[in-house]
Amino acid sequence: MTESLDLSTTIAANSDQLGAEDFLAGPRVVTIDRVTKGTADQPVNIHLTEFPGRPFRPCKSMRRVLVAAWGKEAATYTGRRLMLFNDPSVRFGGSAVGGVRISAMSDISSRLTLALTVTRGKKAPYQVEPLPDLPPAITPETVDEIQERINNATTLDQLKTIGAELKTTNLGVHREQLQAAWSRRKGEIEGQA
């Protein structure tokens, strides 16, 4: 019998920064912890709550999106959110290698459309959607309650109900912990069947 296993955790890139391969499983909403100065080649490090130690280093086009949406002062970005995704059409050295792009942003009131450079001398419209506000992150007490509900679930239906609730809750920094507990309990229930 095959056990429940989230394979997305096994394909994470071994790198000091975010890359397109980090989004092969789909887009992710991330929260900006802080922004620091980078190198000449990659001048901006956007540190994210969800990827500690692996900053998002946006390309020039995505930096233009950030400045157009939020302004030039990076200190104001802390606490704001982005939806990042892998755009497989991004080219490097003549080959489509994929790249990290922004599809939605918090703190904008309407769709943002910019003309961004696609290839030398050619521009195309690029759109970013507003990212809806999140409810406040759950408290440690709520984490304990959810953990207890997961541990006390006796059927897959009960567990699926909890899982559906988790998908609509702002789990903040507790997301991975609760997802792991949910997956572990699912395996236990399936093992009893």
Could you explain the architecture of this structure?
There is one protein chain. This protein is α+β, with helices and mostly antiparallel strands. The chain is built from 4 helices and 8 strands; from the N terminus they run E-E-H-E-E-E-E-E-E-H-H-H. The strands form 2 sheets. A 6-stranded mixed beta sheet has the order 2-1-3-6-8-7, covered by helices on one side. Strands 4-5 form a two-stranded antiparallel sheet. The chain is elongated and about 60 Å long. The termini are close together. 17% of the residues are buried. The mean pLDDT is 88.
Oligomer: single chain
Q: Which structural class fits the helix and strand makeup?
A: alpha+beta
- Main sheet strand line-up: 2-1-3-6-8-7
Summed up, the helix count is 4
Q: Write down the overall geometry.
A: elongated
Low-confidence stretches: none
Order of helices and strands: EEHEEEEEEHHH
Strand content range:
25-35%
Between the first and last Cα atoms, what is the distance in angstroms?
A: 11 Å
Largest sheet: 6 strands, mixed
Radius of gyration, whole Å: 19 Å
| Percentage of residues in helical conformation | 25-40%
The average pLDDT is: 88
